[in-house]
């Protein structure tokens, strides 16, 4: 992703943001759509487009759990593990999904609450759906 591509995406948004640095998050989300994760080159392009240092941009990217600094799967399934979700069975659901998919624990659409059968249907649906052209997360 080039700085010009990032600028073309965020320029129409500029009037909506009081500060230039507020554009870093939409710029990072856009840069991630190309490969599904952010490379050092993507971070540098975003930094140049929003007039910030690469270190600042990387610190923002590393803070958010939906921005990825290394390759991830075409589909990312997140399971809420806050206390309120755990009380409703999310930890058992996560365990079920990981066992089914052969993943270690910790494995974009929000649905819930899900039963293990619901999760099976969702995973089957995701597996059968063609890869999107852009990877919005």
Explain what the structure shows:
The protein is mainly α. It has 2 domains: 3-63, Orthogonal Bundle (Arc Repressor Mutant, subunit A), CATH 1.10.10; 83-128, no CATH class. It has 7 helices and no strands. The protein has helices at residues 3-10, 24-32, 40-50, 54-63, 83-87, 90-101, 116-128. The two termini are 17 Å apart. The relative contact order is 0.13. The mean pLDDT is 86.
- The count of β-strands is 0
Query: What proportion of the residues form beta strands (DSSP E)?
Result: under 5%
Output the structural class. Answer: mainly alpha
The number of helical elements comes to 7
The residue fraction in helices comes out at 40-55%
In short:
The chain is mainly α and 137 residues long. Helices cover 50% and strands 0% of the residues.
């Amino acid at each position: 992703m080039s700085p010009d591509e990032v600028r073309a995406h965020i320029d129409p948004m500029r009037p909506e943001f009081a500060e230039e640095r507020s554009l870093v998050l939409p710029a990072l989300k856009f840069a991630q759509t190309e490969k599904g994760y952010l490379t050092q080159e993507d971070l540098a392009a975003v930094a140049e487009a929003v007039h910030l240092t690469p270190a600042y941009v990387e610190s923002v990217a590393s803070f958010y759990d939906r921005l990825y600094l290394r390759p991830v799967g075409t589909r990312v399934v997140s399971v809420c593990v806050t206390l309120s979700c755990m009380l409703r069975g999310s930890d058992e659901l996560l365990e079920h999904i990981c066992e089914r998919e052969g993943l270690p624990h910790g494995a974009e659409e929000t649905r819930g609450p899900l039963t293990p059968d619901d999760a099976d249907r969702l995973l089957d649906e995701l597996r059968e759906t063609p890869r999107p052209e852009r990877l919005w997360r």
